[in-house]
Design a protein that fits this description.
Elements (H helix, E strand, L loop, with lengths): L2 H11 L7 E6 L6 E6 L4 H4 L8 E2 L5 H10 L5 H26 L4 H69 L1
Antiparallel strand pairs: 1-2, 2-3
């Protein structure tokens, strides 16, 4: 694949990363280098050695990357709500136009309907965008906190098991 075509393909794949992954692309005249990382809000975790690349251009092809991203793509709730609301508003606009055609002299009714449609459309678009970003960030923080706590629990459990083994060995030595 030519370098420019490959770069266009990589740009198209960015829409599948959302807030879940960080997509690093280094462009060169002869070759594009890319890496896919898990995105973390906590910078200590993000820049730590634990955050290894999930896929790289050295070990994977762009087709494998595309397949992986499409399999793991989860449209956000607010994307779905926003798209559905826009379709509903389009249907309401068609209804408004048909009301205008049928009831030509009813300016109060059509004006009231038009005002409601415009206000609802503006509210829908603004609130959906704000809510989407807020909930994506909150959910990502919750997942990271859960993963951190899970890791601490595993480490503490391992330490406790080691201490129990040491105490059991000491107890066995004393009983002999």
């Amino acid at each position: 694949m030519e370098c420019k075509e490959e770069l266009k393909k990589l740009d198209e794949l960015r829409k599948y990363t959302k807030d879940k992954y960080h997509f690093y692309v280094k462009t060169d005249l002869e070759k594009n280098e890319w890496r896919l990382y898990r995105r973390y809000i906590d910078q200590d975790v993000y820049f730590s050695q634990d955050n290894k690349a999930i896929m790289t251009s050295e070990t994977n092809t762009i087709e494998e990357l595309e397949k992986y991203l499409k399999e793991h793509y989860e449209p956000s709730f607010w994307d779905v709500v926003n798209n559905a609301s826009i379709y509903i508003m389009a249907v309401l606009w068609v209804l408004y136009i048909t009301v205008l055609i049928i009831f030509k002299k009813s300016t109060y009714f059509s004006g009231f309907l038009l005002g409601g449609l415009v206000i609802n459309l503006v509210y829908l678009v603004i609130s959906a965008r704000l809510n989407q970003r807020h909930y994506d960030v909150v959910f990502l923080e919750l997942v990271e906190e859960s993963n951190r706590l899970d890791k601490k629990i595993r480490e503490n459990r391992k330490k406790l098991e080691e201490e129990i083994e040491v105490l059991e060995e000491e107890n066995n030595d004393e009983s002999k």
